[in-house]
Amino acid sequence: MKSSGSFYRNLIAPVRRSSIVLGQMLEVILVSFMEVGILFVVSLFFSVKISSSITGIAFMILLIFMASFFLSGLAYFISLSLPNEVIYETIMTAIILPIFFLSTALFPLENLSGGLAIAVKLNSFTYIISALRSLIFGEIIVFWDILPVILLFAVLCCIRFALAIWRLKKETAQ
C-alpha cells in the first residue's frame, strides 16, 4: 500500500513532509465538515434548532475543526505505523469506540460514579462534547469556560501533527 499507488506518488513528490501530512489531514477535516453539514440539513427535517449566536457558531466550527484535526493526526500516525489496512481498521475501531463511549456523548457525567466517571473525565472528548452541547442549546457561554477546551485541543493537535510528521519522515527514511 505504501510502496505503490497515489500515496507513493505523494511520498516521492518534491514537497515538504509537513505539507503532505497537512494535506492529508485537511482532507479528513473537509470530509468531517461535509458530514456535519449533511447532519445539519437532516436535523432541519426534525425541527432541530441551534439556539446559539454567531459567536457560538464560530466556536462550534473551531471546536469541530480541532477535534477533526486531532483525530486525523491520530489516524495518520497510526496508519503510517502499521503494516496494512486490516490491522489499521482494527486498531482505529479499538481506539474510536472507547473514545466515543467513554465521553458524555451518550450519557451525562452527573449520573456516573466510580471508575467509569474517572475514565470519562480523563477523556478529552468529554469536554469538547460538553462545550458543543452547551453552544448548540444556546446556554450562556463565557469565553473563559471554552478557553481550557480550546487550549487542550490546541496542544493535542500540535502533538498529533508533530508525531504524524515524525512518523512520515521515519517511514520515508527506510
Verbal overview:
- By secondary structure, the chain is an all-alpha fold.
- It has one domain (5-173).
- Helices cover 78% and strands 0% of the residues.
- It has seven helices and no strands.
- α2 (17-45) crosses α3 and α3 packs parallel to α7.
- It is globular and about 50 Å long.
How much is the average pLDDT?
Answer: 86
Number of domains: 1
Major pleated sheet? none
Q: Strand tally, please?
A: 0
Proportion in β-strands: under 5%
Q: Which structural class is indicated by helix and strand composition?
A: mainly alpha
Q: How many individual helices? A: 7
Note the run of SSEs as H and E.
HHHHHHH
Q: What is the terminal separation in angstroms?
A: 15 Å
Task: Please render the helix and strand layout as text.
Blueprint: H1 5-12, H2 17-45, H3 54-81, H4 85-101, H5 114-122, H6 124-136, H7 143-173
Main location: membrane
Transmembrane segments: 20-45, 57-78, 90-109, 142-166
InterPro entries: ABC2_TM (IPR013525), Nod_factor_ABC_transporter (IPR051784)
In short:
With 174 residues, the protein is an all-alpha fold. The chain has helices at residues 5-12, 17-45, 54-81, 85-101, 114-122, 124-136, 143-173. Helix 2 packs across helix 7 and helix 3 packs parallel to helix 7.
List keywords for this structure.
about 170 residues, mainly alpha, about 0% strand
